[in-house]
């Protein structure tokens, strides 16, 4: 009896299920059809009177009204299109510009206001090589207006391909005068504020040292500890402010380099001597491994090189508890390559990407205990090395095994 | 013991250096602007001048050149103590006849005392 009922019931339930599924499907189809119809209707209604203007006319109208300057130059180097914003920014009318060779109208200067004529004109570059070109915070450009005034611009110049063939190139650009002025004010404020912070900090540090030097024997252990802490706290803040100042002058381009030919090995040996005491107090060996052949002199600013090496050795000392720190130099492709290797905690993969950014201190449980400093040292060092024509990078790092940082600087090669 | 004319417009800074020098047994006269520096040069007749650059009324460069204009002070040690760390400023001060050039930041009072004593010989 039970079996029978079950047999009867199952198909009935299945039928019901099937029926409702079909009903749902039908409803869905109707809904989709309605949606399709609605969107079709919408597309038609996008245009006034339901009629779309001719493609060509429409495109021209769009490009004309774009808020960025747009200039199209054809393969024969003639200006074909010059939009409203380009007119406004450069002071030429479209009818003046169109048909002219581009270099009569579109004139660029580099960040030092040197004219980029002939092949150096980025449009000429794009037309010849079929490659894009764009400005970045590192590549600044000026464009010259009809009245001779130069305006700082951000731009991209892109080859235009039609049916796989180069048809010309399009420049899209914008005036960044206001943005540059804002950046300048910000940097200046930063630089002044840093100076104003440094003086009182030096006083806290200096007065603490005076008290310790002249009254250290007559004060209690607690008071002397407080003074020492004040001294160290102020010292730390001062070095942080110094890094800030370095950064702002680096970014303002105010950093002056006193470039000379000099012996890098002498600098390394002097610094090793200087750090010997700290290293041996931590039971770490600090070694300079000379190259087999005599190392040529390098061309760089000795004070900056000092700063870079101090930063790298200081970092290694900070993150190494046992073992050694080894400095090595070799000559490679007209550059002297200096490596600083340690047997320290290493840097985890996640932190590596962040390493050279501003305000970064290695993350992770292992490192955070040791972390100190401003998080600006590597950022500044990398910038300094690059400004002197070299590179600075993390060559390798293994957790709990150690890290190797490398920087290169141009060597003096005779003959 | 030496007589040091300290020219520095920031009171918290000049009080610090004044103490550091006094505790080492030197006699210190503190002035806070360039004009006062020149008048105290006569009345105090120091063995050495510790001179700031950025000051009200008359800056350190001007004070330095005025000191050197007077034959009497041709050999008077003038140590520049400033926040200006640029190579240009250093060159300018040295060409005007500064005896040595110190950048304030990171300089502890003891180092400044040492530098002064070095230049007193």
Largest interface: A-B, 17 and 18 residues
Output the radius of gyration of chain B.
13 Å
Unreliable residue stretches of chain A: 1-8, 361-372
Poorly predicted parts of chain B: none
What is the structural class of chain B?
alpha/beta
* Broad CATH class of chain B: Alpha Beta
**CATH topology-level fold name of the largest domain in chain A:** Beta-Lactamase
Strand content of chain A: 15-25%
**Structural class based on helices, strands and sheet pairing of chain A:** alpha+beta
* Total separate domains of chain B: 1
Basic shape of chain A: extended
Helix content of chain B: 40-55%
Amount of beta strand of chain B: 15-25%
Q: At the third CATH level, what is the topology name of chain B? A: Rossmann fold
* CATH superfamily (homologous) name of the largest domain in chain A: PAS domain
Largest sheet of chain A: 7 strands, antiparallel
What order do the helices and strands of chain A follow? HHEEHHEHEEEEHHEHEEHEEHHHEE
Q: Radius of gyration of chain A over alpha carbons?
A: 34 Å
Overall average residue pLDDT of chain B: 89
Total of DSSP H or I helical runs spanning 4+ residues of chain A: 12
How would you characterize the overall build of this protein?
The complex is a heterodimer of chains A (415) and B (121). By secondary structure, chain A is α+β, with helices and mostly antiparallel strands. Chain A has twelve helices and 14 strands. Chain A has helices spanning 2-45, 55-65, 84-90, 94-97, 122-129, 177-215, 221-252, 264-281, 302-319, 349-354, 365-368, 377-387, and strands at residues 69-74, 79-82, 108-110, 133-134, 141-144, 150-162, 165-175, 260-262, 284-289, 298-300, 323-332, 335-342, 392-398, 402-410. In chain A, β6 and β7 form a beta hairpin. In chain A, α7 packs parallel to α12. Chain A starts with a helix and ends in a 5-residue tail after the last strand. Chain B contains five helices and five strands, in the order βαβαβαβαβα. In chain B, β3 (48-51), α3 (60-69) and β4 form a beta-alpha-beta unit. In chain B, α1 (11-23) crosses α5 (109-118) and α2 (34-44) runs parallel beside α3 (60-69). Chain B has one domain: Response regulator (Rossmann fold, 3-Layer(aba) Sandwich), CATH 3.40.50. Chains A and B meet through α6 of A and α1 of B.
